Amino acid sequence: MKRDLFALLAGALFGAGLFISGMTETDKVQGWLDVFGQWDPTLAFVMGGAIIPMFFAWRYTERHRPVLGGSFPARPDPKLGRNLILGSTLFGMGWGLAGLCPGPAVASLSYGGWPVWIFMAAMLTGMIATPRVRESLDRMVPAE
Amino acid sequence: MQIDWIMGLIGGGIIGLAAATYLLVNGRIMGASGILGGLVDGSGKSTARERGFFLAGVFLMPALLTVFTGKIDTHVTTNILVLVAAGLLVGVGTRLANGCTSGHGVCGISRFNLRGIVATVFYILAGGLTVVFFRHLLGVI
């Protein structure tokens, strides 16, 4: 119950932050990626603004436990690997094409109109298909 | 222009607070693609309710804010081919890489996590090249 409430609160804050920062505006995101056009540096300010509180949050996790119990996520294996590089490259291509990534897509569903729903449907399809994509990749090229 | 940067910094700070809340209270990483992906591919069944509540907040808050501010600030392309291709690439890419702008970007970089930093370099480079190619060479976006 408490977990759900704080998940809702975190989600609401995330949505508010995306809205206020202008990151649901696809022109701004594509403007940041478009270094040869009218370059828009807003995204760098958003990233910087978000990283500052999180830097302190990670410091706090070193000596504490989560408020609602359990344990903090362990530091992932620093291995880079095929999936990380290829996946991030594919993600970046889609991000550039539409100016949308998963968070802002959900945040602008209510007012972005039908194009956001089309994007969302394709994105969820891609997510559902990924385990199969990963298996086919494993057959072609070993992961590490 | 400068006001956009200030709003970016403020909005970014709120995004950071959201991620800090999810981490410090629930003990979880606030990664949009992971939360969403785990819900649709079945891998996050045991935490489905928590994921659902998080996504409800992400959806509802901007909906409320648009009603109150009357501001609708998005210009998503209406080219269906571009939307479908972009959606598929983002869906497969983020799940394959196990993170997106929020998980690898915000949560990974702030932890000085090498995977997050490398992922961010690759998706920004790929995004930049894609915009240059499709906007300036082909003129489709």
UniProtKB/TrEMBL annotation, chain A:
It comes from the Bacteria. The chain crosses the membrane at residues 42-60, 80-100, 112-130. This is Sulphur transport domain-containing protein. Keywords: Membrane, Transmembrane, Transmembrane helix. InterPro entries: DUF6691. It comes from Cognatishimia maritima.
UniProtKB/TrEMBL annotation, chain B:
Pfam families: Sulf_transp. Keywords: Cell inner membrane, Cell membrane, Membrane, Transmembrane, Transmembrane helix, Transport. It comes from Cognatishimia maritima. This is Uncharacterized protein. It is a multi-pass membrane protein. The keyword Transmembrane applies. It is found in: Cell inner membrane. PANTHER family: INNER MEMBRANE PROTEIN YEDE, SULPHUR TRANSPORT DOMAIN-CONTAINING PROTEIN. Belongs to the TsuA/YedE (TC 9.B.102) family. GO terms for cellular component: plasma membrane. The chain crosses the membrane at residues 6-25, 52-70, 76-97, 117-138. Its main location: membrane. Coiled coil: none annotated.
